[in-house]
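Extended Data, panel c. Modelled sequence:
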Amino acid sequence: MKTKIVYVLASSPSDYFYEQCLISAKSAKEYNHSARIILICDNRTKETLCGIRSEIGTLFSEIITVQFDDSVSNLERSRRMKVNLRSYVQGDFLYIDCDTLVVQDLSDIDKCEYSLAAVLDGHCGLKSHVMRSFFYKQNLAFNPQIVNEEYYFSGGVIFSKDDAISHTFYKRWANNYERACSLGINIDEPALCLANQEMEHVIAELDGVWNCQVRFGALYLSSAKILHFCSKKNMPISRLSSRDYLYNVKQAGLNTPSLEAYIADWRKAIIYPIVISTDVDAIYNTLPDYEQKRRIQYNKLVQNQIYIPKNKGLMQWLRSLRNYSLGIINPKLLSEILYKEKFGRAIDEDPTESLNKKIYRLAFFGNPRQWSSLADKLAVREYVNSKGYKSILPRLYGHWRDSREINSVALPNKFVLKCNHDNGSVIIIEDKFSIDWNYIISYYKKRLNGTFGISSAEPHYRHIIPSVLAEEKLENDKSFSNGLVSYKFFAFSGDTRYCQVVYDTAEHKYQRNLIYDVNGWIKCANFITKNQGDINIPRPATLDKMIEVVKALSNEFPFVRIDLYEVNNKVYFSEMTFMPAAGRITNFSQEFLEILGKNVLI
């Protein structure tokens, strides 16, 4: 085989991109012994190819390392390397996505006479594609001419001849991608489509066997050369795409049980039978109704993120009315009433010096003058910046006093929405083109019109001017969690010892907690009384940096909780909390509450 096979990899030990690449490259080598297989990876990924991850080197003829600034995310690294491949690789090449399985000899690609060739996305013209409305919305701000396009190619498998046309095309693709990124479009296919239009449709169509996309690829399954097994659009029906199996690959590498058998016969890895649709079923599978049902399901998942207290009837309504009235007139008295109702004794009669008691004293007898501005998720950014930690702030896309003014056009496809003045209003948007914006606007209208903190006796929230803000979506890179992991540090005048780790955060009701002593990263058993986790959390790679940040942000306060994230070995700021659970924490053991309380020196 004369054509080179090329992969692109940007990965950390906590994600599964390396494992996908390992499987695909192993399958490519199995069926193409004479092929020259090349890996393009970034400098940060290259540093991780040690230990068990070093065995990927046995599958490649060459590993080319591309240098990036530390501030560039793995997602951007991956896409930028892909659109610049022609600058790194000499000779004809066949680019293959990592989430694929090579199932046949690929040497026939040597006969390809075209400068560039790829498979149509969905194995059909764009105007016939079930997701055409999604692609139109996804592209419109960047390329209005998308509505006139017939050929929308998948970027998953691309043949490139080493000629002038191909080199020119890749330069256009790279330039278009940079412009797309400036508009918040981080995927590469819109830029690919525009480059093809600009060069009068220079990409030729490859037969579907070269990139068989399962959902639409029934015609190509029997003779497929490359299967796309991990794409969300194409349904993850293979064991090779499952989180559990990829975790096994992370532990055992090329020696993972059944890997050889799955590569020898991809059908053995299929979890459910592949059903070929015919007649009415086939028509339904390619109608917009299918995509409409996908949007309905997606919006259900979004709404499941949100914690909405259940209404328990008249007594709860009367209590809410009492709490609101007292919260305005005398929040200190309300705090004492709520404490007694929860714990069965007056706070002054509590003989312990628990954290709850200390929070009460700080809130109503201390000097909480800065609490309002620092509990404000918008204003606190200036405080973090003033301490020299601007680099740990997630990117801010915008903020609005009225939810109807949210500028969705200017936002990227993925982002996070939250209110600056409350808790529990975070909504993670994975796909802005499928989201029900009427629901979003209505939900945040209610949040912005409500004054948070009155009914819970947290008066410092009353002075925050409500806004809804859009921030960068941080991608979870922790294999032990299904959502972004939060590291909540309890800090006392610049000192911190305990960290509450919250994981499995994809849905509020299923999240789990653990307490760790940061000195040695030792798990503290039985400090959590509700939703305690049962796993061992790895020591964060940036723990020392986290502690440095916590000390700097907390040294002016007898107590504050500093919440941070760690993504791709970088620390990100979340928020500062002065009254966790409004000073009525019930999910910590009494022992732990007293340990924390002793550290509050007032």
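Residues 232-236, 278-284 have pLDDT under 50 and may be disordered. This feature is highlighted in the accompanying rendering.
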